[in-house]
Amino acid sequence: MKIVAVTACPTGIAHTYMAAEKLEKAAKKLGHVIKVETQGAMGIENKLSQADIDTAAAAILAVDIAVEEAERFDRVRKIQVPVQEALKNAEGIFAKI
Amino acid sequence: MALSFPFTCPLPNGIHARPASALEEVARNFSADIVLDNQRTGRSANLKSILSIVAAGVCFNDACLIKVSGLDEQVALATLSLFIRTALPHCDDAIEETLVTNGKSHLPPGLRSSGATVHHGTVVVPGIAQGRLVWASGFKMPDGLPTDEVQDVKAEQARIDQGLERLLSWYSQQLVRMPKGIEHGLITAQRAVVRDDEFRQRLFNAVSQTRRTAAGAIVDAERHFSAMLRASDNRLLHERILDIQDVCSHLLTEIYGDINGQRRTALAHDSVVVAELLTPGQFMGLDRRFLKGLVLAQAGTTSHTVILARSFGIPTIVGVEGLAGAVLAGQEVIVDADAGALVTNLTSSARKYYASEMNRLAGREQVLQRYATRPAMLNDGHRVEMGANIATVAEAQAAFAAGAEGIGLFRTEMLFFDRESPPDEAEQFEIYSRVVRAAAGKAVLIRTLDVGGDKPLAYLDLPTEPNPFLGCRAVRMYPQYEPLFRAQVRAIIRASARGTVKLMLPMVATVDEVRWAKRIITEEQARCAREGLPFDPVMPIGAMIEVPAAAFAMDGLSRELDFFSIGSNDLLQYFMAVDRANARVAQLYNPLQPAFLRLVKQVADTAHAHKKWVGLCGEMGGQLAYLPLLVGLNLEEISAPAPAIAGLKAELAQLELKECQQLVAAAVNCATADEVAALLERFLARRSAPLLLPDLILSNVAVTSKEEAIKLAIDQLYIHGRTTQPRMVEEAVWEREASCSTGFGHGFAIPHCKSSAVRINSLVLLKLREPVAWASIDGQPVKVVILLAIREVDGAMEHMKVLSKLARQLMHDEFRAELEGDSSEARISAFLQQTLNA
Hints:
The complex is a heterodimer.
Chain A: E1 2-8, H1 15-30, E2 33-40, E3 43-45, H2 50-54, E4 58-63, E5 78-81, H3 83-88, H4 90-95
Parallel strand pairs in A: 1-2, 1-4, 4-5
Antiparallel strand pairs in A: 2-3
Chain B: E1 3-8, H1 17-27, E2 33-38, E3 44-46, H2 50-55, E4 63-69, H3 73-87, H4 109-112, E5 117-120, E6 122-125, E7 128-135, H5 153-177, H6 182-194, H7 197-210, H8 214-231, H9 235-238, H10 241-256, E8 271-275, H11 280-284, E9 291-296, H12 304-311, E10 316-318, H13 325-328, E11 332-336, E12 341-344, H14 348-372, E13 385-390, H15 393-401, E14 407-411, H16 425-439, E15 443-447, H17 482-495, E16 500-505, H18 511-530, E17 541-545, H19 548-551, H20 554-560, E18 563-566, H21 568-575, H22 594-609, E19 613-616, H23 627-632, E20 637-640, H24 645-652, H25 657-667, H26 673-686, E21 697-701, H27 706-719, H28 726-739, E22 743-745, E23 748-749, E24 752-755, E25 762-772, E26 782-791, H29 797-809, H30 813-820, H31 825-837
Parallel strand pairs in B: 7-8, 8-9, 9-10, 13-14, 13-20, 14-15, 15-16, 16-17, 17-18, 18-19, 19-20, 21-25, 23-26, 24-26
Antiparallel strand pairs in B: 1-4, 2-3, 2-4, 5-12, 6-10, 7-11, 11-12, 22-23, 25-26
């Protein structure tokens, strides 16, 4: 499955990147293709294009703050979880898809 | 015929004690009766009595009338009107700034759950002190003295007069011996009460009208004037009650002997003194060897007692109400003036907390001491000489102990103040020689006398000038007082035989002034040679650059002189045309004004084009924030007060010349001071100070809780100069913890924050001896703590990139295993550097 994700936490120093790494690791293990956008202290990195999002089966939003440019995700199925959830149980999030 | 003169009170704080005493000083020179009418309140005052002036309650913008009648009324009126127009508006400087915490004091998280009793107050002098609580009962008139039914009125009044006279002469003697400063101001204020006509009259009337004894009259006067001050709506006046009480108590002692003797508070061990109120006199009576902290239930933040405590650096809080001081006496307590708290009933966890606070302070001391003994050098090896500003021999010794590499400014005025006649050549030679000896070969830059209208000397009979800062001072007065200047020059020339001496002329504006002074110096050197006195024939001669005209005469001056030192205070004041003591324009007094930086740059550049040495000795040199700019201006030397030196050296070690030069090049092209400030802020964020240092990695750390672990990690930032406000950082870290636990599992935690209290982006790694509970997402205790402290405003994307990489790496078992292993601090540091910078 092709999946997109966004991670974002209040300070954007640690959790944003830890969660991104966890999601990528889990996706690899489960045989999914994933692209994770981080919205952290360095701004938006690895940005998801509209095409990325439109062709994805689902979008995981592992965020504790509002997502930037949220309108991009209007047409895709979204699974929103707290950042901590991605650290605690990344594989479980994929199971919800 | 009476004369009058109307004016509107120009002082934002009204005519309180200080302006009143300035008015009284002027008025008492005349025999005419002088009255001030406050037309708003309808109250009149005798201008020769500060108590009476103060009672008139003159507020900002009150319409007032001065009425003069008597023999010298013409001169009196002319003098007073000139004084009121030109000098009075400036009489209100130095209302001491005080640190006041907002509302309730803020307890550090580590202390909140300690169970100790915390009494909140307002911080007036920060710091932390521990000691036994000593309860000092406040001011009280002694009882047991007869107060009523005087038989011989005349004799009793004579007793009072003799007491007043002795007290006045005691105060005057104190003033002669005392250097200008805080205590001097205090004594001057109290002396004004002793010679106050209203004060004396009230004492006399009490005797003649109500048959009170001297003691009874003093008790009445104390009550009356205290009530009068208390009734005013001026907060500054309330705090002068303590001065009245001191005077009354001293006067009783003069008349009845030392009845207060047993009331003095004796200290025998490290003490925290707690009182409802403490008069300045009572404060001065405390043994400062043992006085570690001060807690006052009532005193405001501008009383003389508080000002004295500040000058001695005694951690102090005020406004602590409802303290049962007598009950607590003898208990070991802590004044945490950083948090605005008195901590009593210390529990073991509170003791532990403060023990770690003491370790933090001692740790910083140690690091600074390490820098004090190192040469002042940038990270790239570039040397900048670190000098000290001094005014006395004792300060010279302290300065070298604190790491000074020379004396960058020896202000010689102190030798000339508060005495009947100027020090002669021999006395000056002795003092300069002692400083040169203390310098042991290092350079001593002696500035010749800088006095004038604003710093008058009794024996010089300098005329009063309407605008002393633009008047005949420093180098401008030398031709008129040539023998005085020659004596000083000879003393300096002779001292030059004993070490490295440089002579510096203050307030130079033109090449003519320099040529004149050089002629005198050459003549005196020739005389010394004829007399066979040894001296250094190539003693460098230089000038302070503090008059803007000199900054634009650098070519000519460089041909005449060997070196320059920028006096940034006066230069900025004259250049911006701003009196920095005037609160209404003080915001212009900002060294970050681009025009000012351009001026300083052109001074340095022109001098350097002539291969001349340039230093800076103003207050700007003592402040860490400006250091990158001073380095980037290519100054050879920076001179600062001794206590700042180690910190400046530590900061220098983190700078690189090229970066600082680029900063200055950009700063001089800014349009506003705010732009320069923002530039500086970004520079500090981006500078090359590494995120990670072996010093910031600690293994085998013994802590028993998450709170302790976080505090200890943040303390490392403080110890290594990466924050000056560890408690603010702690607050920010805990705020983050509250939103989401940073224990991400596997025995690791990554507490972090973004805070304006962080000066340098940092990573601290603690490996704990025993794991501690952390509320981790996997419920496991934590063994490795990685603290990330990031600046609020950040330009360092590099650092952020490294940290995001670290965060990602921590998700991998192998990476964590490396950190958990038995490696040394240096190996862990190298491993992290290598992985993260790859």
